[in-house]
Design goal:
alpha/beta, 20 helices, elongated, disordered N terminus
């Protein structure tokens, strides 16, 4: 896999530079000349270039006359058409089944799976008229709805050649995906068989994708149930399925302190990365539109710059994504923009701020950050300390097939994946329904640990947001190869253990000499401060975390959880002073 890319001459003098895996897969395809070919390659590996190289070769040999590309989203239609144009293959991304013909200047068209389902018979007629290559991008979407799969099968059954591509794990359901081969396993259950597979582990070894540094944050959450009960739990600790879900929703509530603290930490990480990669950008993945707007407002307060906001299915989404991709703005906040293939290579820092927790969705999200541009780049993804998400992060290199006729298991995330995805993509409606069942009261963030290359790294005890211990990990240089990263993480863990021993000894030595407030007194002061912060939030709509940050900046001192009695009193007085001033 270490040999240099081979140059392949194609249509109209266009030259492809193929990576080793692309050349190997292309050679296999040209040798075997199959009618159907399924390529499974990790996000960022270059599936588009591979498929277009095949298309150009088949066109030059006159094996085919036309190309039809099917994608999950409208944005990807445009992205494919732009890539095809660079390869000398003009594709019409605005084609719709109803218009019939397209300009003679085009060699092919691009549609969505939903567009195919509108009138598959018309597409079948078009496919029969010309020797056609059909490229089915992220083919597992043909199983999103029964009509989509049936439409794809009817429309493209007569195709001369078909190439199916996927970059994320197939799901488990009872619907076979069109034009995919299934072989029964030892348990008798059919599993998809790929003609060529190029996984994340292989791509990482070849430096085709970036390694991912997962920054996990826990913290104390408080919420009120529909029955009126107030519950407090720590995110990341063993909880029931329902309590874990409610704690996660509380953490992601824009009015709490968890989200502002994590967004601030992610922005500090982006600062560090941009020292080596000046145009590096960040992406916050939100559950719904209201949350996305609130997160963007918080980021503006943190950075002074309004992020790019991409809401679900808005007409300007593609243009916004393209502008962000080619610019140097710091942050983008998006809903339902995690679709496979969305290409923004400069994304280097991500915040997973959505309640969707399935292997497929997680892989899609992480796939937005792994596209490598230069040796030594590392992606950083911030996520809540939820067991399922931490498990997905630890198993990022595991490949999965599409499994047929699997028995339903309520504890298996794959079985409930469709419902969870539907909930995440339902927009404001899902959020409104949840608000009838619970109400977030308070959330506090704590740095938990770093996951990298199958290992976990962190400091013993609680690590508070904004502390030097947290900066040990946020301040890791932006350009390190995996070996250097592992060594540096181990050094940071060792340093933290040494510093903790020193601090413990100092604390024990000064305990008899220092007069401090009692636990009860500190608790009363914290409650009074939190009440005033809540009142100020209702008056100004500023998030709790931002208010706490302003108080710390004005009065000094650490986070409220570890502040002294005098520091807490100073912040209480400061808030009262703000409240006494007339509103501007």
């Amino acid at each position: 896999m270490g040999r240099p890319p081979r140059r392949l001459q194609r249509r109209q003098g266009v030259t492809f530079r193929l990576r080793a895996w692309q050349q190997e897969a292309l050679s296999r395809y040209l040798d075997e000349r199959p009618r159907d070919f399924l390529a499974v390659a990790t996000p960022g590996a270059g599936k588009t270039t591979f498929a277009l190289a095949i298309a150009a070769e088949l066109l030059s040999r006159r094996v085919i006359e036309r190309v039809t590309i099917v994608t999950p989203t409208d944005h990807l239609k445009t992205q494919w058409a732009e890539a095809a144009a660079r390869a000398g293959i003009p594709i019409d991304p605005a084609y719709s089944v109803g218009q019939g013909k397209t300009s003679a200047e085009y060699v092919g068209v691009a549609l969505t799976y939903a567009g195919v389902a509108v009138n598959p018979l018309a597409l079948r007629i078009r496919t029969e008229r010309f020797k056609t290559l059909v490229i089915l991008d992220e083919i597992h979407h043909a199983g999103d709805a029964m009509s989509w799969g049936e439409g794809v099968r009817e429309a493209f059954q007569p195709a001369t050649r078909r190439i199916s591509l996927t970059g994320t794990p197939f799901r488990s359901d009872i619907n076979p995906i069109p034009f995919v081969t299934y072989v029964p396993g030892s348990d008798g259950i059919g599993r998809s068989v790929a003609d060529y597979t190029y996984g994340y582990a292989e791509a990482l070894a070849d430096h085709v994708v970036r390694p991912v540094l997962f920054m996990a944050y826990s913290g104390d959450m408080s919420w009120r149930t529909r029955a009126g009960d107030e519950i407090t739990a720590r995110l990341g600790e063993p909880l029931t399925k329902d309590l874990t879900a409610q704690a996660l929703r509380t953490a992601l509530d824009p009015s709490g302190s968890w989200i502002p603290a994590v967004l601030s930490a992610a922005d500090k990480r982006l600062d560090e990365v941009r020292k080596n990669v000046p145009d590096a950008g960040g992406l916050v993945i939100a559950s719904d539109q209201d949350s996305a707007r609130a997160y963007a407002k918080t980021l503006k307060q943190i950075t002074g710059e309004l992020p790019t906001i991409v809401l679900s299915d808005e007409k300007a989404a593609s243009k916004k994504i393209a502008t962000f991709s080619t610019g140097d703005a710091r942050w983008m906040v998006a809903v339902r923009m995690v679709s496979e293939g969305v290409d923004v290579p400069r994304l280097a820092v991500g915040v997973y701020a959505t309640t969707t927790a399935t292997p497929l969705f997680f892989a899609q999200a992480v796939g937005r950050f792994v596209r490598a541009r230069a040796r030594g780049e590392t992606a950083s993804v911030f996520l809540p300390s939820v067991p399922s998400l931490l498990g997905f992060a630890a198993e990022l290199e595991v490949a999965r097939d599409h499994v047929l006729a699997r028995r339903a298991n309520p504890d298996d995330l794959f079985d409930s994946e469709d419902a969870l995805l539907a909930q995440a993509q339902a927009g404001d409606g899902a959020s409104d329904e949840l608000n009838n069942e619970w109400a977030a009261l308070d959330s506090q963030a704590r740095f938990d640990r770093v996951l990298f290359d199958g290992g976990e790294f962190g400091h013993a005890g609680e690590v508070h947001v904004g502390s030097d211990e947290e900066m040990d990990f946020l301040g890791i240089p932006g350009l390190l190869d995996p070996a250097q990263m592992r060594e540096l993480l181990q050094q940071r863990v060792a340093k933290g253990a040494k510093d903790k021993m020193r601090d413990d000894r100092a604390a024990q030595a000064s305990e008899a000499l220092t007069e401090t407030a009692t636990f009860d007194q500190l608790g009363v002061l914290r409650r009074e401060l939190n009440s005033l912060v809540a009142a100020w939030h209702h008056r100004t709509s500023e998030p709790h975390g931002v208010i706490h940050s302003r108080l710390r900046k004005a009065c000094g001192g650490p986070a409220a959880a570890v502040a002294t009695g005098d520091q807490l009193r100073a912040r209480i007085d400061q808030l009262r002073d703000w409240a006494a001033k007339p509103a501007v």
